[in-house]
Amino acid sequence: MRSAADPVGFRGSLAAGARFPAFLGFLPHTWCDVDNVIETLNLTKRFGRITAVDAVSITVGRGQVFGFLGPNGSGKTTTMGMLLDIVTPTSGEIRLLGEYGRAGLHRARQRVGATLEQPNFYPHLSGYDNLRVKATIQGIAKARIDEMLERVGLTARRNSAFATYSLGMKQRLAVAAAMLGDPEIVFFDEPMNGLDPEGMREMREVIARLRDEGRTVFLSSHLLHEVERSCTHVAIIKRGKVLAQGSLAEILGRHTTVALQSADPVELRAALGEYPPAVRVSQEGAFTIVELADDDLAAMNGFLAGRGVLLSCLVPRQRTLEDVFMEVTMEDAVEVA
Amino acid sequence: MSALQLLRVEMIKLRRRTAFVVMVALFVIGTAIVFGVRAILARSAAGQAMPFALPGSAAEIHGVLQPLIMFFSFVTVVNLTAAEFPWRTARQNVIDGLSREQFFTAKLLLVPLTTFLFFVVGYGIALLIAATGGVDGALVSVPVVKAMLGGIVTAIGFSSLALLAAFATRHTAGAIAIVLGYLMFGEPVLGAILGRGGEALGRLAAYLPANVFASISSLGQYMPGGGLFFPSVHEPIATPMLLAMASAYVAVFCGSAYLLVRRQDL
Question: Are A133 and B265 inside 8 Å of each other by CB?
C-alpha cells in the first residue's frame, strides 16, 4: 500500500507479509517484496544548507531498465552514491535486494556492479590487474577476468596500463568490472558521456543484453532520447526531488496530445477551455495543440461538435520523453515561482 | 574478508606503482651509499681512528637509520593512502564490495608493514656492510636492540599520524606537509609555549607526541642513567610510561582516521 507518507510502501509491505518482528532483523527478510530490488523512502542528503537530494522515494522492480533522468546537478549521482554507500544519507531509508541496515546493505552490494561518474581505476595498473583488484575483493576466479575482457573486446590490451586506454576502452573496462561478479543489479552513471556514435551503440547493446539476461539496470542520464531507447521505466528528478516516475508507457501516456484544425481557431480554443479533460491548449501555426488528461478523442470531438465547432483535422501526436521531461520540469518551475 | 585478503588487494595495487618503487629504491641506494662510504672511510689510513665494525658501530647505525626509516615509512603510507581519493578508487573499492571499515583496515595494515619493510631492509644493508669491518661477539648490544625496537614504535607513530593526515586531506603533498609542519614547527612552538608557563606545564612538553616518539627510540633511554632530557624535565620518563603514551597516540591517530572514513563521503 502506498501513501503520501509512505510512497514506496515500506510499512505496508512489512505489515502485510511480516514473518518476523522488526527486532529480529538478523533473520532473513522474507517479508519484503522480492520483485522490488531497489527501494528508497524519503532519502535525503544535505550538504550544509544545500539539499542535494530531497525525500526521494523510488522503487525499481527486478528486471527493469530504470532510467534516472535529470539535468546536471539535479541529484542523480548523489542518490546513486547513497545507494552504493559512498555517500552517507542525512535521512531516509534504503532497501537493496531486500536487505537493509548497514550490514544488510553491505551484503546486498556484493550482488551489485556499478561505475559512478567515470571509470574509476588505478592508472598504473593494467586492465587485467584492475579487474584482479575487484576479483580479489569479491573472491571471483581469475578465469572470469579473462572471460569478461574477451566479452568487452579488451583481450589484446589486457596488459596495457589503464592510463593508456582510450575513453571508449575505459568505458568498456568499466562494463567488464561491473559485470565481473555476475551482479543482479548494474548501476551506470551517465554511461553515454563522451562516447562517439559507435561507442553509444555498443553501450545500448550492452544494456539490451543485460536486460535480456534478466538483470536490473539502473542508469542515470541527461540524454533523454538515449533513455527512451533503452529504458523500461524512468524517474525524473530535478533540484533533488523526484517529479515523476513509472513505466515508460505510463510516463509517455500521462497526457494525450492532439493537433486540431477548424475554420475558427479562436472559437476552437474557447471551446477547449471549457472541456474538463483539456490540460493545456496552445497554438502552433494553423494547428491548435491540446493535451488531454484522458485518451477519449471521440468524447472530445462530440463535445466540440456540441459547441458548434467542427474539426477539419484531428491528429494524435506521439509524445517523446523530451516532451514529458519539459512538461514536468516546467510544471515544477511554475510551482516554485 | 580476512586481513590476508585485504593485504592481497593492497599488493596487487602496488604492481607497477612507480612512486612506491622509487621510494624503496631511494632508501636502498641511500642506505647503501651512506654506510658504504662510511665503511670505505674507516678502512682508509685517515679512518683508522673511527672503525666501522660490530657491535661498536651499531649505535651509530641506529642514529643514522632511525630518522630515515621514520621518514620513508610515513611518506609511503601517505602516498599509498591519499592517492586513492583523486583516482576515485577509494569509492570504487567500496562499490566493488569492501566496507568502509575494510578499506580503512587495508590502509591501517600498511602502517606496520611499511615500517617493517624499511626496518628490515635498512638494518639489513647497514649491518651487513658494518659486519664486513669485523664482528666482535654479538652483532648488536642490548641497549641498541631496545632503541631499534623503540624506533619501530616511532615509525609506526608517525605513520599513524600520516594515515590520519592522508584521510583528512586526501592529498599526498598536503598530508606530508602537515606531518612535517607539525614535526618542524608545530611541536617546537607548542613546547616553547608550554615551557614559558611554569615548571608543571613545561614538564608536559616531554609528553607531546614527537617528544615521546623521539625519547622511545633514543639510545640514551636504554643506557644506565640515560634518558632524553628536556630543559624543564629533570629526570627521564620511564620506558613503560613512554610506551603507554606512544600507544595512546597511535590509538588516537588511527581512531580519528577511522572516524573520518566512517563519516565522510567517499
Answer: no
A110 to chain B, any CB pair closer than 8 A? The answer is: yes
Q: Any chain A CB within 8 A of the CB of B85?
A: no
The answer to whether B99 contacts chain A (CB < 8 Å) is yes
CA–CA separation, B179 and B78 (whole Å): 10
Which chain B residues are closer than 8 Å to A129 by Cβ?
Answer: 12, 15-16
The rounded distance, in Å, linking the Cα atoms of B68 and B84 is 25
Asked if A223 has any chain B CB less than 8 Å from its own CB, the reply is: no
Element (H, E) at B108: helix B100-131
Q: List CB contacts (< 8 A) between B94 and chain A.
A: 84-86
Residue B214, classed as helix, strand or coil, is: helix
d(CA A125, CA A131): 9
| pLDDT, tens digit only, all 337 positions of chain A | 344 444 444 444 433 333 334 444 433 333 345 588 999 999 999 999 999 999 999 999 999 999 999 888 899 999 999 999 889 999 999 999 988 888 888 889 889 999 888 889 999 999 999 999 999 999 999 999 999 999 888 999 999 999 999 988 898 899 899 999 999 999 998 888 777 888 888 888 888 989 898 899 999 988 888 888 889 999 999 999 998 898 888 888 767 788 999 999 999 999 999 999 998 888 888 899 998 888 888 999 999 999 999 999 998 887 788 878 887 777 665 554 4
Q: How far is CA B141 from the centre of its chain?
A: 22
Q: How many domains does chain B have?
A: 1
Q: Report the alpha-carbon distance of residue B159 to residue A315 in Å, rounded.
A: 73
Burial of residue B136 (number of CB atoms within 10 Å: 0-12, 13-18, 19+): exposed
Domain span at residue B118 reads 3-263
**Closest CA relative to residue B203, chosen from B227, B232, B239, B242:** B232
Pick from A133, A142, A158, A184 the residue to mutate for testing the B interface (most B CBs within 10 Å).
Answer: A133
Inter-chain touch B95–A132, beta carbons under 8 Å: no
C-beta atoms of B91 and A161 within 8 A: no
Contact A137 B263 (CB under 8 A): no
Contacts of A137 in chain B (CB under 8 A): 1, 5, 9, 93, 96-98
ipTM: 0.87
Query: Residue A101: what residue type?
Result: G
Residue of B12, B263, B264 lying closest to A129 (CB–CB): B12
Q: Which residues contact A56 (CB under 8 A, 6 or more apart)?
A: A40, A42, A43, A44, A75, A79, A92, A237, A240, A241, A242
The answer to whether residues B260 and B168 touch, using CB atoms and an 8 Å cutoff, is yes
Asked whether A80 and A220 are in contact (CB, 8 A), the reply is yes
- What is the sign of the dihedral through the CA atoms of A195, A198, A201 and A203? negative
Check CB contact under 8 Å for B16 and A114. Answer: no
Q: Does A6 touch chain B (CB under 8 A)?
A: no
B58-82 and B142-169 are packed helices; what angle lies between their axes, rounded to 10 degrees? 20
Q: Which of A85, A122, A138 sits opposite B94 (nearest CB)?
A: A85
